Amino acid sequence: MVETSDIRVVRCGGSKVNLTPPIISNDSRFVLCASGDLVKVYSTRTEEWLHSLQGHTNQVTGITLNPANHLQVYSCSVDGTVKLWDFIDGILIKTFVIGCPLFAIYVSEKHTGVLFLHVSMATDSKNECFQLVSVHLPKSAEQEVEAKEMSAVSSHISKNPSCTAFGRGVRVHFFFFLVWIRLWRNFIHKKEYTYSTQHWHHNAVNTLCFTPEGTHLLSGGIESVLVQWQYGADNRKEFLPRLGGSILHISASSDGQLFCTSHSDNKITVIESSFKVCGVIQGLVKGDAVLTDLMIDPRSKALVLNGKPGHLQFYSLLRDKHLYNLDIVQQEYIYEAGLDQFEVVKAAFDIKGSWLATVEERGKKSSDLEFFLKLWAFDERTQSFVLNTTITAAHTDRIISMCFSSSEETTMLVTAAEDSQFKAWCQGADADTQQDQNFWSCDFVGSYHKLNPTNCSFSADSSLLAVSFQEVITIWSPDTWEMLTTLCQPPGVIRDLCFGRLSCSKYLLGTTTKNLLCCWNLLTCELEWSTSVDVSKLQPDPFSENVAAFSYQSKHTDLFVFKPSEPRPLFTNKNVCSEKVHRAVFVPREEPLNSCDESTQWLNRSQLYFLTQNMDLLTFSTATEEDRMLSSSKQLVIDDSVAVTPFYLLLGKHRQQQQKLNTQSHPAADKPQQTQGSVTIKELLHTPAHVLPAASVLCSMFVNSFLISNTGVQEEMDSEKEEEDSEEEMEACDSQQELRAQGSVDEVTPKLSKAQERELKRVRKTDFSWMAGLIDSKP
């Protein structure tokens, strides 16, 4: 058993961006949000992720702009530190060590050098209590300094950071949101205060936010409708509906031109003051649970899983960006608690990514169960999946497992259900012409002693199909649908089932509810080996012989990576996470690693991703891989220190090869000298559009880059005149020698010299329009 510290568990993207309220920069150009242990910076114009502020070692719980410098931002984390950043350049300026977990951060314009933080109180009660403390930031030249001067401001405050806010004065105010909104006026003066109650939301109000001028109030809740209340007009309200998931946070820019709303579907919506959506920053959608497996789209290499209700989401792990949603249910989702609605519970791709199978159902009880099996075909024109076949009565009970065949020649889908049957589905054939049609139909129905099937799996070459029935595994031939053999499992119902790959394709693996992991040899139909381990997820790597097994014990999950040919693990990692792991997937690498270490070779061809019960998407990274990513990020600069754009990354290699060919074919002396404005032009063309100033500002600079000073023009004309005189003398001598050699002057064809050609070109370019005015002015 090999364990190494070179491999560590890291957040790979897809973290929550709705945990804390986002903030908008003073110029409304950037949106900053906490995402895992990072602070991400997005452009409000292009919605693109620009860069991340990386330095915290645990969850970032709060961010706020520095009131003394609008280009800086404070962040706090559970790691017990507060960090000050230059968020434009992504530079860490200073780290303040507090020494205890931090859960929210606030600043006040009238308290310079003071931060207000949410910390946990040490109490004897089981319920966790929080208090608000003020921390005085010490002035020090060191980059990391301890902040020891701390004083309590208020105790037993709400855990929700939205319940604490700072006004323009010193006092701290606390709000508790119900269905009604209560507005207080002159609340500092106890004898003069008044209040009014506003009502529109039919459920609890999650968040409130005043506009900077204080004339409007913004509210949001589970209805996913942003409501704007006008001060002094009780019945004057504006609505922006259908924003997605329920609204959790609302933020406003300092100039009041932009609003931001955070949603329960891990999304940030950028809204103009005119109540028009101008941008959407969509993270990995995380609902209450992921019902489908983690899948990889064979075409786009995107991660596919449950998205917003009734949808599948396609998420790019490489770019950490949401690509698109595929509407499976095709019904409007009603955001109401307790309402039984259709959900996508199963999904699978074929090996080429041409077909997608989905199962949607509603009804927790068997008597109320309603489900559909749908087949989706990939459309080359729209580059998306379109519905091909809907099967309303695929089984008489809930479908619990399904898989596509692994063969590229024929496509077959197998479903197993709690009606004691498994069915094979193929593309139908016309009864008259016997030609394949573009619809799906049932090809075979199988069962075994009326036992309920628990899982199904195809071999790597699709020559065998394994279907488990309770404690028995049946092996079938898809060509003849003959049951070849049965494998008796030791006590326990089978949970996971998978075949080996490549050189280990003769092995079949299975896990049971009795905490056993077993391996059979399909050539001898005998048990090869077994071990006692509680496997919560068994995940084979389709690109190698390796298999990953997640085991939950002693309140934490361990990882074992092994080959079916031998029970000795290639790699083990203790305490990967504190929750159970039920979803995992191997993702192919764009560039394979070249690790020779036995403990890291299993990561050469693919990378293992897994999802925890807390909806954290994690992966394993090696030190070599992190060093390579760091070095590649340093190389993203061209020779004149101009920022690299995606166009340069796409065309840079071709341009470098072309330059090499030109250098080989032409001497260095023949290379034309760059003009004075070339640097300015490169800066203009290579700088990302969202960080450029307005076009009106660039116009004068761009035009001036083409102009040449008068001094330079005069010097150039003098030098050209001297060159012309010398060339004329040389050409005259040469022409006389040629004439003497030919013996006759009359036989020579007249030819212009180079100096005469240049003079002729100059005359053609001369502007003689002034002569027209002179001629017209004559009597």
UniProtKB/TrEMBL annotation:
GO terms for cellular component: small-subunit processome. This is WD repeat domain 75. Keywords: Nucleus, Repeat, Ribosome biogenesis, rRNA processing, Transcription, WD repeat. The keyword Ribonucleoprotein does not apply. One of its GO terms (biological process) is rRNA processing. SMART domains: WD40. It is found in: Nucleus, Nucleolus. Residues 715-732 have a biased composition (Acidic residues). It comes from Cyprinus carpio. WD repeats lie at residues 53-95, 198-230, 392-425. Residues 294-615 form the WD repeat-containing protein 75 second beta-propeller domain. Residues 713-756 are annotated as: Disordered. One of its GO terms (molecular function) is RNA binding. It comes from the Eukaryota. Pfam families: Beta-prop_WDR75_1st (PF23869), Beta-prop_WDR75_2nd (PF23769). InterPro entries: Beta-prop_WDR75_2nd, WD40/YVTN_repeat-like_dom_sf, WD40_repeat_dom_sf, WD40_rpt, WDR75. Gene3D superfamilies: YVTN repeat-like/Quinoprotein amine dehydrogenase (2.130.10.10).
